[in-house]
Design brief:
The complex is a heterodimer of chains A (about 220) and B (about 240). With about 220 residues, chain A is mainly α. Chain A has 10 helices and no strands. In chain A, about 85% of the residues lie in helices and about 0% in strands. Chain B is built from 6 helices and no strands. Chain B starts with 8 loop residues before the first helix and ends with a helix. Classes of the chains: A mainly alpha (about 220), B mainly alpha (about 240). At the A-B interface, helix 8, helix 9 and helix 10 of A face helix 4 and helix 5 of B.
Chain lengths: ~220, ~240
């Protein structure tokens, strides 16, 4: 087993065994979606219209939940120092942690989307579109959040700072995610263009995120 | 004088002590000329009346709102690549200034929008991306304030600044795209015909005045930051000595 796959499996085991991180995110997602009808009213036609936006906002907030523990837990027990000194490039180690984080927190959100879509009176095709855009878009959220997690790793109030740093950077992902979902449902723009840009954002942040996060960890902990 | 000569904070303090009064005087003169041109020379707009004069504060502020982030980006590269000792001082001092000019641009724009568009705020592409820029300035300032060690805070803020510099054009582009999708051509545009020289010259003069103001305030803030760090070092040494005794 290579060091990277070992790291990936370790992080996934930790996420599943301790505190049920995956379930917590989905539960939070469910609660956010449940709260919205109380605020905007139970009108099913309106909920159907703004459904994709609600699901995206809920997933965006839920994906922030576990981020502050991503490096902080490793920093506290010392394993982050081992990663920093290890022979594996830190960028790749950070990417492996990000993949594990996405599988345990991002993917469950995508899987929960069809059920939550039913609550919001979405058509099956619309549910598919939202789930697909979330599947493509949530890795970008994880990778952007990675930078914030690395920047706030050694801070006492990092949990508060993290959303402030990360949320403005997620604006493009949110715009194109919701636009692609809406384009598939009502038009008038074709689904392809915003969806491709969303994919490009994900690929770009897959590159930018690990490098910036690794640099932040190196500078923050020396 | 090369940039590296300024790496010595004492030399920087000595140089800026000589330059700052002249800069402040030049700023005052530029503002005086600019104000005269605005009120005596520039005509009122035939449609907008006197409210067009808001432009002379609004436009330079918006330019500086973006300019300050560029200054921070260059300083961030200086921090991370060359470890220039004054780069993170420059970055830290530029952030509140950038935030202030961004706020000024938003605030004056909002005041201008009320009589012109009939509302204080529209989710127009420009307004929205400037708002996001403002939020990012506040994020950088928050990061500076959360980390107590200045050089560690400097490197963290430098990384965030660079990430922001890459992201800001993407945000701008996506907000433009989002806006054309949601509300096509619902907002009056200033552009139209090219700006008349009678307005353009005062605008350039005020822009120069604002630029001088920024440089003056930035250098003064850098001096304060250097002195603040010296005071901090002295406090730490005193605390150390008290502990040892």
């Amino acid at each position: 087993m290579t060091p990277l796959s070992a790291l990936l499996l370790r992080d996934m085991r930790l996420a599943v065994r301790i505190g049920g991180g995956a379930l917590m995110g989905v539960l939070f997602f469910l609660i956010v979606v449940t709260l919205v009808p109380f605020a905007v009213g139970p009108d099913l036609a309106q909920l159907r219209r703004i459904g994709p936006a609600i699901l995206w906002i809920g997933a965006l907030l839920a994906s922030l939940l576990a981020l502050d523990r991503l490096f902080a837990a490793d920093h506290e027990d010392g394993s982050l120092d081992l990663l920093l000194m290890g022979r594996t490039p830190l960028e790749l180690a950070v990417l492996a942690k990000a993949v594990a984080h996405w599988i345990t927190t991002g993917l469950p959100l995508v899987l929960a989307t069809p059920l939550l879509g039913l609550f919001l009176n979405l058509e099956p095709a619309a549910i598919g579109a939202v789930a697909l855009t979330l599947l493509v878009g949530t890795p970008a959220l994880t990778c952007i959040g990675l930078i914030g997690a690395a920047l706030s790793v050694a801070l006492r109030r990092g949990g508060l700072l993290l959303p402030v740093l990360v949320l403005p950077l997620t604006v493009p992902v949110l715009i194109f995610g919701v636009a692609a979902a809406n384009a598939a449902i009502v038009g008038p723009v074709p689904f392809g263009a915003p969806f491709l840009i969303l994919s490009a954002l994900t690929l770009g942040s897959l590159v930018l995120g690990p490098f910036a996060a690794a640099a932040a960890l190196r500078h923050g902990l020396e | 004088m090369a940039l590296i000569d300024l790496a010595n904070p004492t030399r920087f303090l000595a140089l800026t002590a000589r330059v700052l009064p002249w800069l402040a005087a030049a700023t005052t003169v530029a503002f005086a000329v600019g104000l005269y041109l605005i009120w005596a020379v520039a005509p009122d707009d035939y449609q907008q009346g006197a409210t067009v004069k808001i432009m002379f504060i609004h436009v330079p502020s918006a330019w500086l709102a973006m300019g300050a982030w560029s200054v921070m980006t260059i300083a961030a590269i200086g921090t991370l690549v060359w470890r220039h000792p004054l780069a993170d001082v420059a970055a830290k001092s530029a952030a509140p200034l950038g935030a202030a000019f961004t706020f000024l641009a938003l605030f004056t724009g909002s005041l201008w929008g009320r009589p012109m568009w009939g509302t204080y705020w529209v989710w127009d592409a420009r307004l929205t991306s400037v708002l996001v820029l403002f939020l990012m300035y506040l994020g950088v300032i928050a990061l500076w304030r959360t980390v107590d060690d200045p050089s560690r805070a400097g490197r963290a803020a430098a990384i965030l600044t660079l990430v922001g510099a890459i992201n800001l054009p993407i945000i701008k582009f996506s907000v433009d795209w989002w806006n054309t999708l949601h509300q096509p051509a619902s907002v009056l545009r200033l552009g139209g015909p090219a700006i008349h020289p009678a307005i353009f010259t005062p605008l350039l003069v005020t822009a120069l005045a604002f630029l001088l103001l920024f440089v003056t305030l930035h250098l003064a803030a850098m001096r304060n930051e250097i002195l603040r760090r010296r005071v901090r070092a002295m406090w730490l040494m005193q605390a150390h000595a008290a502990q040892g005794a």
